[in-house]
Amino acid sequence: MLHGFLSRRQAQKLIIHHHWRRRRTQAAAEDNRPIRRQQPGDLHRDDGAGIISSAADESGGGVAAVPERVAGHRPREAEGGGGGGNVNEMSYLTRILSSKVYDVAIESPLDSAPKLSERLGVRVWLKREDLQPVFSFKLRGAYSMMAKLTGEQLAKGVICSSAGNHAQGVALSALKLGCNAVIAMPVTTPEIKWKTVERMGATVVLVGESYDETQSYAKQRAKEEGRIFIPPFDHPDVIAGQGTVGMEIVRQMPGPLHAIFVPVGGGGLIAGIAAYVKRVRPEVRVIGVEPFDANAMALSLYHGQRIVLDQVGGFADGVAVKAVGEEPFRLCKELVDGVVLVSRDAICASIKDMFEENRSILEPAGALAMAGAEAYCKYYGLKGESVVAITSGANMNFDRLGLVSQLADVGRWSEAVLATFVPEKWGNFIQFYKLVGPVNITEFRYRYDAHKEQALILYSVSFDTTMELEKLQDWMKSANLHTLNLTDNDLVKDHLQFLVGGRSKIENEIVCRFIFPERPGALGKFLDLFSVSWNITLFHYRDQGGSDANVLVGFQVAASEMDEFKSLANSLQCDYKFETDTEVLELLLH
């Protein structure tokens, strides 16, 4: 079953304050516990953890998991280790200071963001890792590890598994070091990505329907050929390479600094930054940022052990991991001050912010820290402080820009999606238009039906303040026009607002959302499988520029056939869910 569809409302805007010392003590005796499987966003109310609800919708869709840590806290000399053996935090400081990453990487600039700063009332600085030679910070970690390989190891070559930025980092590092590199990438990888890696001189192998299958292939081939496997985040040398970002921030920002916001996937970047910053500037907060539906680090820190997500949202594909690394988690639970969760809409709004600041376009994961910084500053009412957000990458799929543009104003809370019922009488549409005329309408959807007493008008409006939206809703109420605010409903934004044909009464109709790999022939195979047994009553598919297809489908399935339907759906081995938001389905479909 599909677990990863989380809207801003479903995530409940929780601020979670961890009593970390207590949890750390509990976890210390249980370091060998197996990692747990859990659903994304599954942060439950726990009085012992002090969960507080936030009603600040305008915070940008943020959920913050922020522990209570005393300012100036210095980390203990913890022993432990992930992929590279036992490494304490002082050793990381030495590794970072002696790193050779500048053979391939630049010291990225720390740019001010005057427009965002003015809006938030804080001084926002952007650490421009999107300006690296491969448009991502990932080459730092890859080169840091590969530069330490012996001549014999380099002669045998390296291999990695990646569908994105890590692949480019390994390929460029191999080119610089003169060694052979094999890059295993899933078969669903867009051509533009694997060809970019190939142009750097690496051998690209498209293998596996999922990342797990691709990684298994890479590790097996590494054993067979004696190659060194270069992990994307779970190795001390990779972490140290990423930690040079923190070293640069400290050097570039000598004055007071409240917090550094870091995008979190597997945890290598934030672990490296925290390992350095907490040694030399312990008063500076290091705060991670994750999407609502890819929150493995937040859940792991909350539970005191690594959590495996059953399903991961793929919009911010650069951070879409099911489990954080063992060594990054060990460092993060000791050093990191918290995690902020943000919505897809908020990420899109931050991509737009970056474009308006300097005409640069970030990938979703690259804008994650900006979205988290804004949510944090608004929630805590931070004013006059300095904060840094790491813009981690700019490898944006061009096909995704349409979706980003569509959702950006919603994420900024400057556009709302509304649905209003009006009596289906001649001339009522014009009267309705005059009623909403003072508001800037960005989209209108209406179809006359002489056989119905009530007409549904679906429309979007832009506004500068929430008071304008509230005023419009008051107008509708005074005119006795039932109006729903659908702005937070992902089902509407992703699918229902694009459907044609209008509402229809269909017996035994069920509505499902499926996610399956975006590859040639996948859609046809999906349709052939179901159309033999059940009538398809509704269908919407939209290419969103990712590796997965998100499809909304309606079927006529009798109650006696539900077990058979579920069995067939499960045989697809893809994520799916039954849509049960009856109010919205009745509103737009029936």
UniProtKB/TrEMBL annotation:
Record-stated family: Belongs to the serine/threonine dehydratase family.
Subcellular location as annotated: Plastid, Chloroplast
Enzyme Commission number: 4.3.1.19
A biological-process GO annotation: L-threonine catabolic process
Region called Disordered, residue ranges: 20-46
Highest classification ranks of the organism: Eukaryota, Viridiplantae, Streptophyta, Embryophyta, Tracheophyta
Origin species: Linum tenue
A single GO cellular-component term on record: chloroplast
Keyword annotations: Amino-acid biosynthesis, Branched-chain amino acid biosynthesis, Chloroplast, Isoleucine biosynthesis, Lyase, Plastid, Pyridoxal phosphate, Repeat, Transit peptide
PROSITE patterns tied to this protein: ACT_LIKE, DEHYDRATASE_SER_THR
Annotated ACT-like domain residues: 416-488, 510-581
InterPro entries assigned: ACT-like_dom_sf, Ser/Thr_Dehydratase, Ser/Thr_deHydtase_PyrdxlP-BS, TD_ACT-like, TD_ACT-like_sf, Thr_deHydtase_biosynth, TrpB-like_PALP, TrpB-like_PALP_sf
Catalytic activities: L-threonine = 2-oxobutanoate + NH4(+)
Pathway terms, separated by semicolons: Amino-acid biosynthesis; L-isoleucine biosynthesis; 2-oxobutanoate from L-threonine: step 1/1
Main subcellular location: plastid
Entry's Gene Ontology molecular function annotations: L-serine ammonia-lyase activity; pyridoxal phosphate binding; threonine deaminase activity
Pfam families per UniProt: PALP, Thr_dehydrat_C
Cofactor dependency: pyridoxal 5'-phosphate
Protein name per UniProt: Threonine dehydratase
